[in-house]
Automatic annotation (TrEMBL):
<protein>
    <submittedName>
        <fullName>Unnamed protein product</fullName>
    </submittedName>
</protein>
<dbReference type="Pfam" id="PF00153">
    <property type="entry name" value="Mito_carr"/>
</dbReference>
<keyword id="KW-1133">Transmembrane helix</keyword>
<keyword id="KW-0677">Repeat</keyword>
<comment type="similarity">
    <text>Belongs to the mitochondrial carrier (TC 2.A.29) family.</text>
</comment>
<dbReference type="GO" id="GO:0005743">
    <property type="term" value="C:mitochondrial inner membrane"/>
</dbReference>
<dbReference type="InterPro" id="IPR018108">
    <property type="entry name" value="MCP_transmembrane"/>
</dbReference>
<keyword id="KW-0496">Mitochondrion</keyword>
<dbReference type="InterPro" id="IPR002067">
    <property type="entry name" value="MCP"/>
</dbReference>
<dbReference type="GO" id="GO:0055085">
    <property type="term" value="P:transmembrane transport"/>
</dbReference>
<keyword id="KW-0812">Transmembrane</keyword>
<keyword id="KW-0472">Membrane</keyword>
<dbReference type="InterPro" id="IPR023395">
    <property type="entry name" value="MCP_dom_sf"/>
</dbReference>
<keyword id="KW-0813">Transport</keyword>
<dbReference type="InterPro" id="IPR050391">
    <property type="entry name" value="Mito_Metabolite_Transporter"/>
</dbReference>
<feature type="repeat" description="Solcar">
    <location>
        <begin position="180"/>
        <end position="264"/>
    </location>
</feature>
<keyword id="KW-0999">Mitochondrion inner membrane</keyword>
Amino acid sequence: MFACLFTHPLDLAKVRLQTAPKPGDNLIKVAVRLVKNEGVLAAYSGLSASLLRQATYSTARFGVYEELKERMSKDGVQPSGVKLLGASMFAGAVGGLIGNPSDIVNIRMQNDKTLPKEQQRNYKHAIDGLIKITKDEGVSALLKGLGPNLVRGVLMTASQVVSYDLFKSFLVKNFEFDPTTKTTHFTSSLFAGLVATTVCSPADVLKTRIMSSSGSNQSALGILMNAVKTEGVGFMFRGWTPAFIRLGPHTILTFIALEQLRKYRIGM
């Protein structure tokens, strides 16, 4: 949640690039248009929903993964890469399910001002958004885009936490990095952020487009096929730059904080 305070504007830019009807925009254009039309504070539109998402999605996936990894570890020996992969995929699915409602509100609040006035939802905050979605669209609407969100959750957690552990182990074994220093944690998490951004981009774009819409019954496959037809395969990597600029620092801050929590827990 702490990392979210710094990276939210980049997440907002990513969402707007992913939901843009036509390609051609970039991070600079989106930022300039945002400040010009909506003001500087608009960069934090949907912050309450973003914090709620981190409190549900991220807490669940990291918590489940760490618990499973600890249970699989024997005599202080790290589990195999295959076991870590399985644990991370399960943890990602759990996080995706728990965080889906807040994810919908987050995306809609970030993208709201780009819609015509008559289509804007004007959620006051995350809880208001959840209440209005339930009231206007039904409880089932809180699971909109769950399929690609589960895929993204699995891919994100698997690529992020497993690659972090593997990169960290590689640096320690081959380059004699100290596993307890922030330099090791920083380097490992930076590479993990790069891997996660690239692997998750297609599912992330698809998830964003489904969740940003209201009342549409078009399937994920239908949206995917239509986007490929009209925009080309490159649409799957829309918003990659702000996604990496966001996820890189976010991953670094998250894992450094997680390592400190591990030290505190061991110290207890």
